[in-house]
Amino acid sequence: MAPHTIHQALTSRQILDTFPRYPQTIEWTDCCPLLLYVLCNCVPYTCCAICSIPHADLIHTLYYSSYCAPHQVAPDEGTAAAWRGQVVYSPPPQWTATQRSALANSILVEYKNTFDGWFVDNGGVITDIDAMMQMTKLAYSGPGSWNDADMLQLCTYGEGQTPHTPGGMTLAEYRSHYSVWAVLASPLILSADLRTLKERHPECLALMLNEEIVAVNQDPLGAAPRLISQRSNASSIGQGLLSVSCTNPAATALPWRLEADGSLRVTSGNVTMCLDAWNCGKANGTLVDVYACHPGGKSECGYTNQQWLLDAKHEVITNVNSGSCLTVNESNPSMLYLKTCAEPVPAQQRFALDTGGLLRAGGAGSDVCIMAEATVTSRDIVAQVFARPLHGGGLAVVLLNRDESTVPLAVTWEELGVAASTRMAVRDVANRRDLPPATGRWEGSVGKHDVAFLRLTPLV
Length: 460
Known about the structure:
- This protein has 460 residues and is an alpha+beta fold.
- It contains nine helices and 26 strands.
- The protein has helices at residues 12-18, 80-83, 97-104, 125-135, 171-183, 197-200, 202-208, 211-217, 413-416, and strands spanning 6-11, 35-40, 47-52, 59-63, 87-89, 226-232, 242-245, 253-254, 257-258, 264-268, 271-277, 287-292, 308-311, 316-319, 325-328, 336-339, 351-353, 359-361, 368-373, 381-389, 395-401, 407-412, 423-428, 433-439, 441-446, 451-458.
- The strands form seven sheets. The protein has a six-stranded antiparallel beta sheet.
- β13 (308-311) and β14 form a beta hairpin.
- It is elongated and about 75 Å long.
């Protein structure tokens, strides 16, 4: 379920005018002077407010308010007055990543408070970006439910009230901050002292006043952005499998390859793991997951539990040790197990491994892929490419260099979903200048912690 509309932002004092205080609720003084977001339909037929304590990863409680129109309460749910002041969501005392993600993908649209710094362990621009990538799907962004990456630290240079690294960020880092927020269609909320910018930081004021950056953010098409690609130095593979769209798999999803010894392998950095039937199990329901590869080694079953026979004609994958078929869990598509092979072959036992290493659950025509995932931390990611369709058929593309030196970055038309033969006009949005037209791909040198911000427009 996508996040719902931010109906209106109110100050703490304004919200008190429409909100009763109940003994079981938190004290509103805890919230001042933060904004409280009133959301309509944050759960079916109800409204609520979010109170977020500054610099904490804890959303306290969501309460129903009477701010929204009474007709938004379903007839069988009673009147608005009956719900007024009732707790509609209360998080557990200890958050898990799964719980945070589920909440973000249902009723919340803000991910972490921005620090005025490029990257620190508990904040900064990079942390904000990665929190958004972890906690929600960019495809949910659109009119009425924009992803909120939190306020901009643009041009504050460490002089604001939020936590910051000494001196804040560099001009290149502020340019990256502004550009990524723009292409992700996040609200652009300034926090710098506008009274002194012209005298103290004229170069950053010029960046702030770049109308082309704002135009991408405010594009009337209202299309959702995408993470096009991500490059990292990840060197480990997480336990567990992912169920992803084959058309747009997660950037951390790893392609499978079938080796001559019958093993199905994935590799991230210097780590390789194999598809494994646990503990040489043969019984129906034996869990299948990724595990360290030991082909040919000594074990109870000679590690034949990591060997698989692929029948491309019938789209069946059989485990050599058990003779059972790889089967997907109907209620949890990211879970695989062994089960006696059935005739005719049911959809749960149909798999197709395509040339790109995608393992399609349900057969060759399926868009559901079962993949292993690289374990990636913020420190591992060195480059990302984001894009957003624009009205008139163009694309905004931001190539972000998170590395510590200047590097070449590129994006292909295929990655953008554009025909390779398309000739594109290329506009450097950040520097407000035209670049030579390109066909099939664009590549350029991008400085440390900087971006290439492009507007691509098809040429007739």
